[in-house]
# Entry
Amino acid sequence: MNIVCVSHLRWEFVLQRPQHLLSRAARDGRVLYVEEPICDAAEPHLACRNAGDVTIAVPRLPADLSFEEETAWQARLIEEAVRQHLTGPYVLWFYTPMAVAFTRGLTPGAIVYDCMDELSGFAGAPPQLGGFEQQLFQLADVVFAGGQSLYEAKRHQHSRVMAFPSSVDVAHFARARTAVARPAEQERIPAPRIGYYGVIDERLDYALLRGLASTRPDWHFVLVGPTAKIDPAALPRAANLHYLGPQHYDALPGYLAGWDVAMLPFAHNDATRFISPTKTPEYLAAGRAVVSTSIRDVVRPYGQQGLVRIADTVDGFVAAIQASLAEDPISRQRAADAFLSHLSWDGTWRQMRQVIGQVMSDRSVGIARTRTAS
# Structure
């Protein structure tokens, strides 16, 4: 199965849902991953490179193009890329509805919208996004929703919406329970360490972080990840708040191994209303106790099953961390392992592939019947 994916995410920014799924898809066929343009070129062209078995294509455009000119060049370049890199039928896979504008000339065997976030709620969302998403609902053969709350929000907008919540590579993160190498920069930070990794952006509750650091100066709060869409200078600062910057996916188990508790300090805002944090099962696979704010897709099912402690205030979060530090982790780890035994990115991709295969088969039958009738 060949795939042309159009995405708003840079392949090499943070390893998340698109990389997990499409790197597995590339075992079955060719995958062309088209990123958003970079406007720095004298002449429009497509810059391609390989990331494992996936071909990454980046439109490089002049900086002074209008929206219409930029869209026309993207359409021309993606059609050229498909001709050069793929033979035979392919699936057109959307992460951003904005790509509807420049993919109309393509002729895929199926159209998939993998809706991993409510992008309209994010800072800097284009005003045209909502309109393009409605068009994408009309075009798509199937919509995959990246979490239960997102599924509930989208299920009435398309006849075939399916929930595929965040999954996990258990073996990768379980390395945190073994004698994995621990990063020296973190080992110099005193314990207890309460950690978070992920993008540091408008989704985090900075008032909560500031309050935690102030209330418990004897605890150390470690944040691992790149900043985006916020001014790093505006981040809360304290002697026990440590920002360690972006780290490679392969290094994350080493950081997790040095944490006493893992945290999900998300704010309640438009950007977090429908999120399903991939790091929740990853933290659990690492054997960490987890404390989170009451994000719906964390409360259901992780909070309800006693796998994650939920708190929204500074005092509540402190109490939850204290309980986590004092607990005997064995029973919680057993319960978490039983829950995670049913989750894997391999399994998620197999299920998605089956659905897409059926869609393509149904399309072929429909086309054949149309030709017969004519």
User: Anything to note?
Assistant: The CA atoms of residues 204 and 352 lie 31 Å apart.
